């Protein structure tokens, strides 16, 4: 640059009202992972923007007991919190295969894991639906693995980013696709549904008590944004204390439908025993009754058929300390199964 050229001004710090940024896009210190800011936000019981706090991590490591040299699969990589602990535990000579369907977050997490400095051969990251696990393993020349973890649902990075349309708390396009490159957004799904089909989705995916009334009002209509949908729901809900629970159930039901989450989980549960070596361990973290019912039933059936040698008898839940530190862990339930010899 010549001396006569004016010195470019540094970019102006964005202004926001109040002491701390409230909008996702203003949380730039969190989004660029400033360590001091991350520590401060986490200590206040919140999940820093653009990150995810792994749930029941010590319990999962104890159950799965990943050992040096073993092959582990993280079916739902997310931010990589569980994955990095698995990676460390299987050193030396182990291998972690990590899957996720989210094409936006996956490369960022892969880069973070690679920066941990483990040998490149120990980590394989693939964008894949976990329903395709047998195909992924076959493609890698593997017949079975020692450890499988699934932490279902959405990550905090996905929920907190208004552009993804998962949250009723922020305005954004009504999208909700875990893989933004495939399928139709929630707005298109809603516009295409009959009241009968929408009522079934609301009932089956979220036990919505007013499924028929809500479906009659919403099905076949166009709601381009999360705000447009919450306004319509608010108009249908007379008691103020019912408003947020209704938003929560309707958003959950639509997300499950958009991503065909139960189909993927049922397929995974069918294939799971064949993907484990004898003595291999699997753990699944669920976040609502529709998921937990499926896991409980599949594990009990596998035990009865002697495909599994043991399964969790009781569900494992985050203790009050974890729930306080990470309120998003509140609804988590963990179950495990061990492949018979
Ligand atoms: C709760 S987060 C996982 C968080 C992760 N355990 C961590 O420590 O950061 C769930 C992740 O699963 C992914 N996911 C959901 N359904 C999936 C599926 N059928 N196949 C692959 N990934 C899926 C989501 O995109 C999301 O990134």
Structural description of this entry:
By secondary structure, the chain is α/β, with parallel strands linked by helices. The chain folds into two domains: 57-156 and 262-339, Rossmann fold, CATH 3.40.50.150; 180-258, no CATH class. It is 43% helix and 13% strand. The protein has 15 helices and seven strands. The chain has helices at 28-31, 35-43, 57-64, 81-89, 106-114, 133-139, 156-160, 186-192, 195-206, 211-218, 226-236, 240-258, 261-275, 289-304, 320-325; strands at 71-74, 95-100, 123-127, 145-151, 276-286, 308-311, 333-339. Strands 3-2-1-4-5-7-6 form a seven-stranded mixed β-sheet, sandwiched between helices. Helix 5 links the parallel strand 2 and strand 3 (123-127). Helix 9 (195-206) packs across helix 10 (211-218), helix 9 (195-206) packs across helix 12 and helix 13 (261-275) runs parallel beside helix 14. The longest helix is centred in the last third of the chain and has 19 residues, at 240-258. It starts with 27 loop residues before the first helix and ends with a strand. S-adenosylmethionine binds at residues 52, 54, 75-76, 78-82, 99-102, 129-131, 151, 153-155, 178, 264.
Radius of gyration: 22 Å
Categorize the overall geometry. globular
Number of strands: 7
H/I helix tally: 15
Mean pLDDT: 92
Number of domains: 2
- Most strands sheet: 7 strands, mixed
Q: Which parts are unreliable, with pLDDT below 50 for 5 consecutive residues or more? A: 1-5
- End-to-end span in angstroms? 70 Å
Spatial sequence of strands, sheet with the most strands: 3-2-1-4-5-7-6
Q: Which structural class do you get from the secondary structure elements?
A: alpha/beta
Name of the CATH architecture of the largest domain? 3-Layer(aba) Sandwich
Name the beta content range.
5-15%
Helix share, percent: 40-55%
């Amino acid at each position: 640059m010549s001396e006569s050229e004016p010195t470019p001004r540094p970019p102006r710090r964005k202004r926001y009202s109040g002491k701390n940024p409230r909008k996702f896009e203003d949380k730039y210190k969190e989004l660029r992972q400033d360590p001091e800011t991350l520590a401060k936000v986490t200590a206040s019981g919140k999940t820093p923007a653009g990150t995810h706090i792994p749930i029941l991590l010590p319990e999962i490591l104890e159950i799965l007991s990943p050992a040096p040299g073993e092959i582990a699969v993280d079916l739902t990589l997310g931010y990589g919190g569980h994955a990095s602990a698995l990676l460390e535990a299987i050193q030396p000579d182990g291998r972690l295969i990590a899957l996720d369907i989210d094409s936006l977050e996956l490369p960022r997490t892969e880069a973070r894991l690679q920066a941990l400095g483990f040998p490149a051969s120990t980590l394989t990251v693939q964008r894949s639906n976990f329903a395709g696990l047998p195909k992924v393993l076959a493609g890698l020349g593997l017949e079975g693995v020692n450890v499988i973890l699934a932490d279902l649902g959405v990550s905090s990075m996905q929920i907190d980013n208004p552009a993804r349309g998962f949250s009723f708390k922020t305005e954004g396009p009504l999208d909700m696709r875990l893989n933004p490159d495939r399928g139709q957004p929630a707005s298109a799904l809603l516009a295409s549904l009959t009241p009968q089909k929408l009522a079934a989705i609301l009932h089956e995916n979220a036990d919505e008590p007013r499924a028929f009334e809500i479906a009659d009002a919403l099905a076949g209509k166009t709601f381009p944004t999360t705000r447009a949908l919450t306004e319509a729901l608010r108009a249908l809900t007379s008691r103020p204390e019912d408003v947020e629970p209704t938003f929560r159930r309707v958003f959950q039901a639509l997300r499950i439908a958009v991503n065909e989450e139960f189909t993927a989980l049922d397929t995974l549960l069918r294939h799971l025993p064949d993907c484990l070596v004898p003595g291999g361990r699997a753990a699944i973290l669920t976040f609502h009754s529709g998921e937990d019912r499926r896991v409980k039933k599949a594990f009990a059936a596998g035990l009865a058929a002697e495909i599994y040698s043991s399964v969790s008898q009781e569900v494992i839940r985050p203790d009050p300390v974890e729930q306080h530190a990470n309120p998003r862990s509140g609804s988590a339930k963990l179950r495990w199964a061990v492949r018979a010899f």
